Amino acid sequence: MKHRWGTIVLAWALVLALLSTGAAVPGTVQAADPPAGYVLSYFGGVPYDDSLHLAYSTDGLNWTALNGNQPVFRPAIGTKHMRDPYVGRKQDGTFVLLGTDNWNSEYIMVYDSADLIRWTNGRLVRMNTNAMHTWAPEFFWDAAKGQYGIIWSGNTDRNRTYVNYTPDFKTVTAPSVYYDPGYDVIDSHIHPWNGTNYLFFKDERSTGTTPKSILAARSASLTPGSFSVYTGAITETGTEGPFVIKSRSENRWYLYADYYSRGGVFGAWTTTDLGSGAWTKLASGTFTLPAGVRHATAFEVSQSELDRLKAAKWGPYRLQSHNYPDRYIRHSGETMRIDANVAPLEDSQYRIVPGLADPKAVSFESVNQPGTYLRHYNYVLKQQANDGSAAFKGDATFTMTAGLADGAKVSLRSYNYPDRYIRHYNYELVLQPVTTATDKADATFSLVYP
């Protein structure tokens, strides 16, 4: 079920050309406005969460998490745990979210959205009746059929890529084998270019010349069974969930894959010729992704769509003390404390927004006093209005890390005093260095919904 996703939306003129040749258009049509960047969908994050996360990039290399790397949407159907989230654009310009529901489920999760912010019409769609798992679903538009093809990884005696066709993501045809090179494969991802459909996949075998690595096949059509392998291993052993995007500035492509045993570490490779099968690994530091990313995919968005996502305020959240779990961070005037039985509840609710001093970090905006933020002053935490100064922005920006006392929770490191963390002391919030076990417990919090 692994981690993967990806597809890039092409310029409208190219879409028309592809449709005329019967090529795949993953995520389908282009946004109405010219593309201005990419959006990454993934699960994981810090702390780990089986829900939809989003990030954005303007160059396809450096990605900034939205909502402070916290979930932007949690499903309320099935197991309520969504893995391998895939977001694609339909022919009408709206979006569909697909996700793996469970390790051994015959169903996938499906949601609809017009704006990538509000997800509605949640439903479980049964993809097979053979007790196969349905991992890592993606979809493409098949112009010849006038329907969407949903591809996914299923298993009988071994894993293959299957397809169901649908006009509406509600009713689907019976599954059929879409891609089977004769050995165990998962995590298929289609990327069309210049009349050819390229299918990237994971060799799931544990032995052989390309075990647990990413390869590619290609076809001039979308016909099931028409793809042929044309590369050796593109990535190292221990990778899965590939997705591919094209640079918007040149004929260059980037392939990302998840080092699935490393807990949210990705590798990236590049080529200037998809047909050659030759890829070069990018050095660490030449690309950045949010911490904890698992099984991702990406698609293009317009400037207006990107601006709307960057301005969105998900949440709100409460910060629950690790070692005093009946107490939550709250404001009382400008004073910041941890208290039990907070009233009104909104005094303990915050929206996580891109860091005022650095969008890769986070700031905490009060729900009931919008425009005011959690900030430190003389190493004491306060809630104050943003005065627009560089000093305020630095004081109100924090790096969210894995919890110092519990890695499934979070700790908040000061942006401008990176040797100090938010911790409680006598129930009040202060900014201090953290060394002892007590310090670490005091500086660890759970992010919870109200």
Automatic annotation (TrEMBL):
This is Alpha-L-arabinofuranosidase B. One of its GO terms (biological process) is L-arabinose metabolic process. The keyword Transit peptide does not apply. It comes from Paenibacillus mucilaginosus (strain KNP414). Belongs to the glycosyl hydrolase 32 family. Keywords: Glycosidase, Hydrolase, Signal. Residues 318-446 form the Alpha-L-arabinofuranosidase B arabinose-binding domain. One of its GO terms (molecular function) is alpha-L-arabinofuranosidase activity. InterPro entries: AbfB_ABD, AbfB_ABD_sf, GH43_arabinanases, Glyco_hydro_32_N, Glyco_hydro_beta-prop_sf. Residues 1-31 form the signal peptide.
